[in-house]
Amino acid sequence: MTSKFVAGALSIPLLFGTVAVAAPAVAQETVPDTSVSTVETQQPNARGKAKKASRSVAPTRKQSPHKYGSVGYNKWYAKHYMEYRYGWGQQQFKALEKLWTRESGWSQHAHNGGSGAHGIPQSLPGSKMASHGANWRSNPETQIKWGLSYVKGRYKTPMGAWNAFQHKGWY
To answer: How high is the mean pLDDT of the chain?
Structure first.
């Protein structure tokens, strides 16, 4: 489960009118979202009038045109999650697509019996992905999230990881 904070506003009557005051955020449990979209919110400007602001939200399975766990879904999820989480665009996705196609063919069940590397990002050992979820052995979303955080931490971007892979044969 993820938590989402919802802010409201209170209207306080004053002698010469009312003033809107932001209410404290309230935590609400929500189902994890697995597609990126833009949500418009109303935020007060300096004069107290509402203005529209937009923000990205995490990708949701419901919004995917592909069957969960398929190669199409895994690519779709990675593309949208990396945009949502890291702000990486199409060029970075192209590099990631090449990298993980070579590593695992985008299969969450890919396993190298010789080295023990596992999953879409071919984590070595596969159990490293447990830091992103106990379901790391078979959940493509957990594997993708771990793989993207690994790429960010070690190579900064998917293009950096792809360049390293081309030179070394691994990343």
So the answer is: 80
